[in-house]
Amino acid sequence: MSSTFSSDAAEAYRNGWTVTGTVAGTEQAIEVLTPADRSVDGLGRGEQWPTRIVVSKWEIALQSHLGTRRHGTVTRLPPVANQLEPETLTMPAPRVTLLLACLLIPMMFGSVTAQENWPRFRGVDANSAVADDPRLPDTWNKTTNVKWKAEIPGSGWGSPIVWGDRVFVSSVHSDADYEKPKAGLYLGRGRPVPPDTIHHWMVYCLSLKTGKLIWKHETHSGKPKMPRHPKSSYAAETPTTDGKRLYVLFGDLGLYCYDLGGKLLWTHAIAPRKTQFGYGAAASPVVEGGQVIYVYDNHESSYIEALDGATGKSRWKVKRDEKSTWATPFVWNHAGGTEIVVAGRKENRAYSPDGDLSVAF
Questions:
Q1: What is the spatial distance between Cα 83 and Cα 117, in angstroms, rounded to a whole number?
Q2: How many whole angstroms separate alpha carbon 149 and alpha carbon 141?
Q3: Which of 23, 81, 156, 168 has the smallest number of Cβ neighbours within 10 A?
Q4: What integer pLDDT is reported at residue 183 of this predicted model?
Q5: For the chain, first and last CA: distance in Å?
Q6: What residues does each domain of the chain span?
Q7: Of the candidate ranges 53-62, 236-245, 347-356, the one whose mean pLDDT is the lowest
Q8: Is the per-residue pLDDT at 119 higher than 50?
Q9: Res 187: pLDDT
Q10: Which of the pair, 115 or 147, is modelled with greater confidence?
């Protein structure tokens, strides 16, 4: 016996997907539940989803709202723990390292120009677009078509940025043995307490042509004040530069300004706040109108703040009615002016360069 099923409108709205497919078994009733961990959103983001079934095994064919077909089985596990165990539902992890290699390689083949700078998260216009170049390799691995490699201790989820002939990147490492991130789906809610080891918050400057270290600076050392989820890092933000100064944000520690030669110009302390599951902060800073702007959405007191790029003094700070989010502000230049657009859980908001709320939707 078989029957057709689909998620209802409310479930589709919450999860951002709809599912249709067929079920073959000795009973007609099956229910694919909302993932218990709200950090997992949508079908296809993980490896298992809880179900309610009354038979030993089902054969299932699913089709997502994107049109992707997946197949799998549902097996009953005593006493009532049932899991949808797909054969091909696992989504590949983002190829961050691969993307960065694509961005850096064209700059290495020729002279560096202003158009080839990569000054912030997602590039010049924050759209990750780069011009095509026939000299780019279309295949590579750890040894083939690699210009250079540089060892950066610790971990950091932020992207490298490029200005002129220099590459800038941040990282945090511990005096204890380095813990590799967990692979695959992880439904744990993070660690309850911070690690009891000394950590080092670092900034590195490398040669674009050779990968050799030009300078490095330790912004802070000590024991972290907040725990961190095994899938996250204390250095999750991408630095940014205006070509004169380098701005490095460690979201629950502070914002640090350097000249491009590595001299520390100013610091701005940030009070650490509780975040969902201990993920920490991850929104990268942006530069606009002589200001460096960052967002710190958390579970205690969320806000957006603009600092004077030259001095580090606060120009404005606006509270946000949001819980933990990780969206980097987008600088939108349009016919009517410039707005700082920030996505949120409750609302998407646009702010003027002076901090006034332009629109929320």
A1: 48
A2: 12
A3: 81
A4: 72
A5: 47
A6: 2-86, 96-360
A7: 53-62
A8: yes
A9: 64
A10: 147
The fold adopted by the segment(s) 96-360 is Lipocalin (2.40.128)
Q: How far apart are CA 296 and CA 284, in angstroms?
A: 10
DSSP states along 195-218: -SS-EEEEEEEEETTT--EEEEEE
Q: 């409108």: which residue's tokens?
A: 9
Question: What are the DSSP calls for 312-332, one per residue?
Answer: --EEEEEE----S--PPPEEE
Assign residue 209 a region (left: φ > 0; alpha: ψ between -120 and 50; beta: otherwise).
alpha
195-199 CB contacts, 8 Å cutoff, 24+ apart: 195/223, 195/224, 195/227, 195/228, 196/223, 197/223, 198/174, 198/222, 198/223, 199/172, 199/173, 199/174, 199/175, 199/223, 199/224, 199/234
Beta bridge partners of 286: 293
Sheet strand arrangement including 81-86: 2-6, 20-24, 57-63, 69-77, 81-86, 49-52, 31-32
Q: Could you read off the pLDDT of 20-36 as tens digits, one per residue?
A: 444 444 433 444 444 44
